[in-house]
Amino acid sequence: MKVLVCIKQVVDHKVKIRIKPDRSGVDIADCKLSINPFDEIAVEEAVRLKEQGQIEEIIVVSIGGVRVTDALRTALALGADRGVHVSTDSLLAPLTVAKTLAAIARIEQPALILAGKQAIDDDCNQTGQMLAALLAWPQATNASTLILSEDALQVIREMDGGMETLCLQLPAVVTTDLRLNTPRNISLPNIMKAKKKPLTEMTLQQLGIDPTSRLTLLKVSEPPQRAPGIVVTDVDALIHKLKNEAKVV
Ligand code: AMP
Fold it and tell me: How far is the CA of 127 from the centre of ligand 1 (A)?
């Protein structure tokens, strides 16, 4: 059984982002980039399934510019077997990403596709759902537990009111939530081994994907600055302020 894991490279969550002076996007030129945290969890889950002998091969796929190969090498060091880099410098909308991933899925024929529930750069939370729809495969989003058997998959997901258990037939698409697992640290020998693992490069053209977006990015701007808070002297002062100055929303 093969598992395809989709990974997006994003600005590291510890970096304070800067907006380009012309407001055309986030300046990533000198930024540390990392695997989207939810995708790292997806890779870890695939590696655990392989260690338990439930799957044979883990393929990681990432779409983006040349720096994306670092994310793929990291995923290979975590335990994936081979990588596919779909190279493009275009800013792709989630539907185009999903179409590209669907094209890769048709070539690789995995039994399971794992993706993050959302990418922390644009928080779209769309790609996994669109991918499942394009392939007409069952889907489970925000998985916090995953139990795989020969031809079916049980997924537990957290909802506002409790936990939901879904049973899916394979092949299926699953997106990961934070509580699914804690990714392991990468050892130096595994970093060295990852350099020798196969990494193939493809283009959108080879996959028959048109990168033209139906979305237009108008501008990127910082959120408005919040007015600084104040410290009140006692509870009576707080109650007075709440009664007289609090805005009713
Ligand atoms: P989004 O819908 O943009 O929030 O992304 C959800 C998930 O789709 C991510 O966590 C990744 O697993 C996958 N994904 C998004 N963009 C890419 C990309 N450029 N390459 C590979 N996977 C991606």
Answer: 6
